Fold each of these.
Amino acid sequence: MKVLVIIPAFNEELNIVNTVEKIKNISNKIDENLNYVVINDGSTDKTKNICETNKYNVINLITNLGIGGAVQTGFKYALENDYDVAIQFDGDGQHDENYIEKLIEEIKKGNDFVVGSRFIKNLSGFKSTKFRRIGIKFLSSLIKICTGTKIYDPTSGFRAANKEIISLFADKYPTEYPEPETIVNLIRKQYKVKEIPVEMHERKYGKSSIKPLKSMYYMFSVSISIIISSICKRGGNNA
Amino acid sequence: MPNLLKLFLLILILLQLILIVRTIKLRKLSIRYGSFWILLLLLMIIPVIFPGIFEIISNFFKFEATSNMVFIIGFFFLFSLNFILITSISIQNEKIKLLIQEVSILKERIDKNGKEN
């Protein structure tokens, strides 16, 4: 199977080398035909230079699109190059590359979409701050109410998609707060969404893109987006 | 406030909410701006149901009439909304300019290569 790891990166000059090298190492270890692409989302730091001097496979967006637009670029790339599986993997070093194989396995078992979740089993590792955990729990219950399916970590950015979902996402992908909304849409369209436990690490350098001041508005907006996409007509054409 | 007027205002808010949700669903309005309007409409329900709140606040700040305070709130709200809109237009202009430049340079390069071959 042809597998593409999509690494969105915005101002990750301190983390990007580490992340890409981890992916390169793991691709030698496992059987799959594993490639990666870094989507440099118009970084204003040295991310672009670092990727070019290291001869990484990188797409430089000429201006900042936001996480949704950057990840969608990756899905478009996956579609064009005929990949079977696309895996989202954050450029900040939070995700553990050793779980990539497990995500691929679940796709092979016939799942359409696999989410790497921090909260299913009590694996060790970083579980985010207390405040954010409460927020994630709230979103998780909201999704349960709206769709009837429990997703423990709806904001996880560590996810794998099969070929059908790749072409769906390449066509339409939300620009803002994409993670929870896409999960709701896939469940509503009756795709097989599976969650598996993964470990995550605290980011080594730099700040998360979600600022505390804006997080209340973030919570409200994400809730609205979950509610609205769950009341869409079934078979609607929104991804 | 008469109950009939309350009902009328509530229906108006409800219709607005439906309009916004529909527009978001059709992807003609992004969630970020859409949820701003939804939040505002939800907040508007409070003074419709309890109009006394505005009177208490306006008495506290010594407005001559409650309607004056409502107008000033509306004025500042529209002012800041306009400001947000103008900034987002400016950002978009900048991005479009960048796109046109990059695409033009690319096109020029492709055209040149085509002629050489």
Note: The helical segments of chain A are 16-29, 47-53, 67-80, 100-108, 130-147, 163-171, 178-188, 215-230.
Amino acid sequence: MDCMNSSKKIRLIFPLFFLLVLTVFPVNAWAFQGHGAREGLYVHQLAHVFYAASMGYLFWGIRKSSFKSRGWLFLQAFCFFIILWNVVAFTGHSLASYVDSSFYLSENGYLSTRLPGPFTNVKLLVYFTKLDHLFSIPALLCLYLGMKGLYRSSLEEEEV
Amino acid sequence: MTSLPMLPTIIVDMVGSVIIIVLSFLSLLYAYRLICRQPGNFLWGFLFYFCITLVCFSVSRAVGHLLKQILMISGNEVIWHGLAPYSGGFNTLLMISLAAVSVYYNKGLEAFRAMQKKALSLRHANEQLEVSAGKLQRLNANLEEIVERRTKKLSASEKKFRNFFVNSKDMVYFCDSVDSLTTMNNAGYKMLGYSMEDDPRLKLSDIFHNEGDVEKYFKTLIANGFVEDLEVEFVRADGTVIYVLLSATAVYDEEHNFIGCEGIAKDLTRVRTMMEQLASSEKMASVGQMAAGVAHEINTPLGVILGYAQLMMDDFTPESEEGESLIVIERQAKACRKIVADLLKFSRQSESARENILINEVMEDVLAVTEHSLNMDHIYAQRNLEKDLPSIVGDAEKLRQVFINFVNNAHHAMEKQGGGKLYLSCHYDKENEQIVATVRDTGHGIPEEVKAKIFDPFFTTKPVGKGTGLGLSVSYGIIKDHGGVIEVESPVKGEEGEVQGTAFHVKLPVLSKEAAPVIER
């Protein structure tokens, strides 16, 4: 009986030990593959594309649904601005490879950071993409107005 | 400008991040309110989950941006570089989630609409089911009452049409496709002289007098579906012919096969007789006018002939040849004058008196003159004169002449058969306010073919020299002048059926007491 119990214990401990080794020394595990920093950027960029495409699909879906109320129009505007925002953000991320420590000039701290001349297209585009909130805020504003409009329409419909 | 400050981008980034967080939460608030109001609505559900994901994304991104700016401003750039991959990773994850949620919109909406449609049709079906159930319940509850009400209506309707069928004074009949009369009302049997109790099996071809009429009737019925105002003659049970106006409609079964007909027949025999009498009256009137004209023209030369003949008679003895010729001329001229006078009487051109007359006295006067002569030929008169008859206005002398004419005709009709009975009756027809005086004999009667001509001037059945044929036409003129009518009946219809003989009914109007005329002569 004792032999039987010790055999069971060994069988239970071994996998746990193996798991511990793999967790502590992951680089040596053959099953894992290493990922570079650029892979994360690509995934993020693809997420922007996916997000923009889904907004296009939603825009088309709302148009197809023939919803004509103010709320739905604002939601379409939201989709439109988000697509623009995605384009701007995607462009901004794509230009990241051109930006290094010499790209900006910072003498008296972060707030005094400047973009030195001469102003190439890349520099101007990078500066512009830093202002991506100029697209995301109207988008969110449209979403807010759209939701509010739909809520009011719902109230009016009930009154009727 | 040699450089651009990055401060505006930092400010926009920080302020924008805060605004985005606020706006995303406000959107979520309205999405929440919507889903609370209508939890079953797919669209609100979709927007609610979309807003939740968007809030997560907005918070993740905005907080990341704010953290970055704060850390950069505070000089902790290294810390930010450590946190940046996590922030970016979260943002990536939430962007994908947002995209994934958005993708469900179209298909979800389609499914929701399909469900809504199904639910709507189910609701309609339910409503209809409820209405039907309600109706059924009401019907069940009132079934007995409804059946009773319908039965009453049906019974009333059936009674109405049965009454029409039974009480109609015209023949109403139903006939099958092989011309057998399946049903006929009592008026129809009566019109044809049958008894309904005997239930005679009649066919249309049995009662149509002319064979061609049956063929014409069915041909028209099948061609047009109806027969309208067809004038035909029916044969009664006793063989007499009646004149009817027939209208009928074809009856079809569900497959539009001709299965019989239903029709109405109106007896117009009486109307036809009246029409014939009217035509006869018009003829008599025109003949009277002509006779009057001729009489006037003849009267003058006849007077001259008679005058000269009488003057010449003074010059010759009656025994001489000339005298005898003049006597013949005088006699024939007088005979002609009598004929002319009669013609004038017929055409009512002669003068007549107007006085109150009791018809019974006139009848008695006539019998007083003629009874002896009648008895000689074994003809015996029977009086049936109603007492207290109202008086009529007219010329007693002319009325006597009329009744003497009738009595003479009766005498003539009965003397050949060696005797008979003469019935004279008078009664008052209160309804029509007229006196009806009847002279009836038991002679041979008047043949049907001459009945219509007996009042024509110069029409006679007597041998030449025995009568002028003016008696009845003069009588006709006199009675017409008195505002009355003469009706002839031969054979005579009595209580015991038809009796041989002839009856002349003279109907004279009685004037009301207020309008009683003054005697003038």
Note: The beta strands of chain A are 114-116.
